[in-house]
Design goal:
Blueprint: H1 25-31, H2 37-41, H3 48-53, E1 56-61, E2 67-72, H4 83-97, E3 103-108, H5 114-117, H6 121-130, H7 133-138, E4 139-145, H8 149-162, H9 165-168, E5 171-174, H10 177-180, H11 193-204, H12 219-237
Parallel strand pairs: 2-3, 3-4, 4-5
Antiparallel strand pairs: 1-2
Length: 238
C-alpha cells in the first residue's frame, strides 16, 4: 500500500527556506529527544566573543517572577555568526544560566537592520523548534520592543505558518518603553542608550512606527521662524 503524502506549496518570491517543511513527521518524532542541556553544557566551544557583544544576556525578573533574557537585536552581527553557532550559544546560555523555572525574553528591535542584524524568521523558527520541550514550556512570553511595520506584517502574515502555535501566541508587542514598565519594574532590565533615544523619537514622531517620517526637514519650524521674523519686520517698519 502506498504511503500517505502531503503537498506544501510556497510562493517562490517570499524568500522562505522550504527545508523545515520537507522533514517527515516521523523523522521529527525520532529526533525530538536527541538534544538535551548536558550535551551543550559539555561543549568545549568558546563563546567568549559572543559574550562580549552582550546581545543575549540574563537580567532580572518581570513582575510575574520570570527570569529575563534580554536580546538586543542591534548588537547581533548576523553576517558573521552562523545559524548553527547561534543555536549552540543560545542553548548553552539558557541551560547554564537558567536551568529551571519560567523565563521570558525581552527582544529590543530598535534600529535593527535586516541584512546586518537579523538572522531571519526561518532560522529563528529552526532554533526554537530544536529547543528541548521543557525549555519551550518554561518560556512564558516574548516582549517585542519597538516592532516596526514590516515586522508586524511578517509575523501577522507568515508567523502562523513559520512559528509554532505556542511561540506565536507568546509574542507581546511593546511599542513604547512606558508600556514595558507595566510588566517589568524599572531596573530589572538594562536599556541601552540608543533604545531610549529611539523611544524618544517615536514618542515625538509616532508615525515613524509605520515607516512614515513626518516633516523630515522640519519645514514647520522654518515656517514658524519666518513668521516671527515678519512680525519683527512689521515692528521695525512701524
Amino acid at each position: 500500500m502506498a504511503e500517505d503524502f502531503s503537498v506544501v506549496v510556497l510562493a517562490s518570491d517570499l524568500g522562505i527556506d522550504a527545508r523545515p517543511f520537507l522533514t517527515r513527521s516521523d523523522e521529527v518524532d525520532e529526533q525530538e529527544n536527541w538534544h538535551d542541556c548536558p550535551q551543550y553544557l559539555g561543549d568545549d566551544e568558546d563563546f567568549s566573543d559572543l559574550d562580549l557583544l552582550q546581545f543575549f544576556t540574563l537580567q532580572g525578573l518581570d513582575k510575574s517572577g520570570h527570569r529575563i533574557f534580554r536580546i538586543v537585536g542591534k548588537y547581533f552581527p548576523a553576517r558573521v555568526v552562523s545559524a548553527e553557532r547561534l543555536k549552540k550559544y543560545i542553548f548553552q546560555k539558557i541551560c547554564s544560566q537558567c536551568p529551571e523555572g519560567p523565563f521570558c525574553l525581552v527582544y529590543m528591535h530598535s534600529t535593527v537592520q535586516k541584512d546586518d542584524n537579523s538572522p531571519g524568521i526561518t532560522i529563528l523558527r529552526w532554533i526554537y523548534e530544536d529547543l528541548p520541550s521543557d525549555i519551550k514550556d518554561r518560556l512564558q512570553v516574548v516582549y517585542f520592543i519597538h516592532p516596526g511595520l514590516r515586522s508586524r506584517l511578517v509575523i501577522a502574515t507568515l508567523g502562523r505558518l513559520l512559528l509554532s502555535g505556542g511561540l506565536y501566541w507568546k509574542i507581546k508587542y511593546v511599542s513604547r518603553l512606558q508600556y514595558l514598565w507595566e510588566e517589568i519594574k524599572k531596573g530589572q532590565v538594562e536599556i541601552p542608550e540608543f533604545v531610549n533615544n529611539h523611544d524618544n523619537v517615536l514618542e515625538h514622531r509616532p508615525l515613524t512606527d509605520y515607516g512614515i517620517e513626518p516633516d523630515p526637514f522640519q519645514l514647520s519650524e522654518v515656517q514658524s521662524s519666518s513668521l516671527s521674523l515678519n512680525r519683527y519686520e512689521n515692528r521695525w517698519v512701524s
